């Protein structure tokens, strides 16, 4: 039996990225998880909004430049509207002094290119069962069985909402503009994309109360499109479905503890946030970058699974993941309320923030990961 230094459990984007990052350091890595995509993964309609820090990590791992051009679409501008006329918050890459605010990336294509890169990683080996290792990194997602077996508390705080995702085609060009509507009680996001039609496609993420989401999912395509076009008000042109619809429940959760002797949690196994800010995978890839750097800078005599070493990773990531979780949950509760005073306050807040360029630049910088 081969001797491994790190066992990575989970072969989603976070697990694969971690295996590549640690393998690049010369560590002997075992990756536990299927290489072959399931039927659901092959038909994945999700898109990821990746910030500058995530792109930098993927470029370092030799994955970013292997993505097909139509699988990564730059976002140059973002328009966030409230539920009252005139309430609008706008962000611009030009004002921020960057080439783009984010990239919208095909979820399935990113996983595939990570898998391809792993085939050329000599220090990473696929295993089909757990193997002994100095450090076990759990990247199995929000339903991690190994996390439960360790006795880690992970109690999702449900908000009674559900997300709907799909691919759309519009009769107007998207021009690199991401559009989002914060309303009571839903959050609608249209993410500019180039699949299946360059300059005319979007990734849809629509967060709604559970019953309303189920009602929409039960509609045929034509009726769903009618509801969607009414909700978007024609701002992106006439929208048509270009895929099936996917759906999942939304919740906020943080694992406690995050680590122990010889093990550590990353990605959705460690924390989940609402998709309204598009930061879920960004948080997971930031976990990867932080843990890889902690292990790279460890003292030569210190074991990889040393709990004091792993606490350096926790100190690096705990505040950022807590803040993003609280921010997204707070925004959700604020915009889900239909109370008239709160409605007026939140809409005024969007317009006020739009008039404060320094604060806008600061917020954009946090989202960009720079």
TrEMBL record:
InterPro entries: FAD-bd, FAD/NAD-bd_sf, Ubi_Hdrlase_CS, UbiH/COQ6, UbiH/COQ6_monooxygenase. Residues 116-324 form the FAD-binding domain. Keywords: FAD, Flavoprotein, Monooxygenase, Oxidoreductase. The keyword Transferase does not apply. SUPFAM superfamilies: FAD/NAD(P)-binding domain (SSF51905). Its cofactor is FAD. It comes from the Bacteria. Signal peptide: none annotated. One of its GO terms (molecular function) is monooxygenase activity. Pathway: Cofactor biosynthesis; ubiquinone biosynthesis. Belongs to the UbiH/COQ6 family. This is FAD-dependent monooxygenase.
């Amino acid at each position: 039996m081969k001797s491994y230094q790190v066992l990575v459990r989970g072969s989603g984007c976070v697990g694969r990225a971690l295996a590549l990052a640690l393998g690049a350091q010369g560590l002997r890595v075992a990756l536990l998880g299927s290489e072959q995509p399931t039927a659901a993964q092959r038909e994945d309609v999700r898109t990821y909004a990746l910030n500058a820090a995530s792109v930098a990590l993927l470029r370092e791992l030799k994955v970013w430049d292997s993505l097909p051009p139509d699988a990564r679409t730059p976002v140059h501008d973002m328009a966030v509207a409230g539920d009252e006329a005139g309430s609008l918050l706008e962000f611009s890459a030009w004002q921020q002094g960057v080439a783009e605010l984010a990239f919208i990336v095909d979820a399935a294509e990113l996983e595939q290119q990570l898998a391809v890169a792993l085939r050329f990683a000599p220090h990473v080996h696929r295993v089909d069962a757990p193997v002994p290792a100095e450090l076990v990194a759990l990247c199995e997602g929000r339903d991690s069985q190994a996390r439960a077996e360790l006795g880690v508390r992970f109690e999702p705080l449900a908000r009674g909402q559900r997300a709907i995702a799909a691919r759309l085609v519009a009769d107007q060009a998207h021009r690199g503009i991401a559009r989002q509507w914060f309303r009571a009680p839903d959050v609608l996001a249209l993410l500019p994309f180039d699949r299946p039609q360059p300059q005319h496609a979007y990734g849809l993420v629509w967060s709604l109360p559970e019953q309303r989401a189920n009602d929409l999912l039960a509609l045929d395509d034509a009726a769903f499109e009618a509801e969607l076009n009414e909700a978007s008000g024609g701002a992106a042109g006439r929208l048509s479905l270009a895929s099936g619809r996917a759906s999942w429940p939304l919740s906020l959760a943080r694992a406690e503890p995050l680590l122990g002797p010889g093990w550590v949690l990353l990605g959705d196994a460690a924390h989940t946030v609402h998709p309204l800010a598009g930061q879920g995978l960004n948080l997971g890839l930031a976990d990867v970058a932080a843990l890889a750097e902690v292990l790279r800078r460890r003292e030569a005599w210190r074991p990889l699974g040393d709990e004091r070493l792993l606490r350096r990773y926790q100190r690096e990531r705990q505040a950022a993941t807590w803040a993003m979780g609280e921010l997204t949950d707070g925004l959700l509760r604020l915009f889900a309320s239909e109370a008239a005073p709160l409605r007026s306050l939140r809409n005024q807040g969007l317009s006020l923030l739009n008039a404060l360029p320094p604060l806008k630049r600061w917020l954009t910088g946090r989202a960009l990961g720079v």
